[in-house]
Design brief:
The chain is of the alpha/beta class. It has helices spanning 22-32, 38-49, 62-65, 71-96, 120-127, 146-160, 185-193, 245-262, 281-290, 299-308, 315-324; strands at 7-14, 18-21, 55-58, 106-110, 135-139, 166-172, 197-204, 211-220, 228-233, 236-241, 273-276, 333-340, 344-352. It has 2 domains: 7-204, Thiolase/Chalcone synthase (Peroxisomal Thiolase, Chain A, domain 1), CATH 3.40.47.10; 211-352, 3-Layer(aba) Sandwich (Peroxisomal Thiolase, Chain A, domain 1), CATH 3.40.47.10. It is built from 11 helices and 13 strands. Strands 1-7-6-4-5 form a 5-stranded mixed β-sheet, sandwiched between helices. The protein has a 4-stranded mixed β-sheet with strand order 8-13-12-11, sandwiched between helices. Helix 2 runs parallel beside helix 7 (185-193) and helix 10 (299-308) crosses helix 11. The chain is globular. The mean pLDDT is 88.
Amino acid sequence: MNSYNPTILSTFTANPKYTKSTSEILRDMEIHLADHDERFRRKVLRIFEYAQVDRRYSIMPAEDVLAPLSFEQKNNRYMEQVKMLGEEVLTGALERANLTPHDIDFIITVSCTGFMIPSLDAYLINQLNMRQDVVRLPVTEMGCAAGVSAMIYAEQFLRANPQKRAAIVSVESPMSTFQHGDFSMANMVSAALFGDGAACAILGPSDQPGPQVLGSEMFHFFDEIDMMGFHLSDSGFRMVLSPDVPEKIESHFGEILHPFLERFGLTIADIQHLIFHPGGKKIIQLAEQLFAEFEKDLTDTRAVLRDFGNMSSATVLFVLDRLMSRAVPTGDYGLMLSFGPGFSAQRVLLKWQ
């Protein structure tokens, strides 16, 4: 095994300016659902009330989220805001790491909730006057798992190129994917769970204390292609979200974790910090049940879901950012874990050195 382990040098998060509490959103949804029967309205409102999300952020005001905007109109907003938020989080992470844009050798941009060519990384190279030889990798179709996927790509690049640095920039706008005329449960549940946000993580060599990446792996579920994703329609991205996701995760949980940790001579009991993607209330409850005998703490995961909602790929980096803001004892282990379209699980093992 390679003796060099890249270190997470810094993280930074940001949210767009438009925000509403769940109580405010409930009033908006009552108006949006006014033409439907009372039983359906109550069912949808209960989904919002019990989603355990107190606040959501959006790149556009609520009236526009709920309006019958065209795909072009929504995607234009997405492109405009993604550039601004991407620059904000990358600049913030560079400052925290005492680095400049010229110090970055590899930039990975992550987003699945809009579409743009050139991709975000090209704009950031121009906006921040980054080096002309910086290596670009846009990750566009891995959904909620992509925050951890990007960590895997960064780790593998850095192991092959010691002394270089990688920046991961995730910017997501699930609120832009809300479908005005779609009253399916998938669209309603998506609206209740998701919010917009951006995050950055910078990795590279360091002589300072911090979390090092010991290893990473992906785990692919066979024959579960339709569990999660988007269907691209004339009106934009239509959410595909199977209610069977928690059951599928539970049935494979041992396969996902135990062999991976055993490669490093570890068990779940050895992990002090779970950096778990808060996919939703049911996913967190499932994780708490599965980890119950080990008394693992998912406070950060719950807090991110409560304060921001599920921000797709950026969410797990928000959880990581909370942990990075605290003093973590040397020798502690952390496990990053997320699930996404494919259907797949992504895992990264950290150790504070």
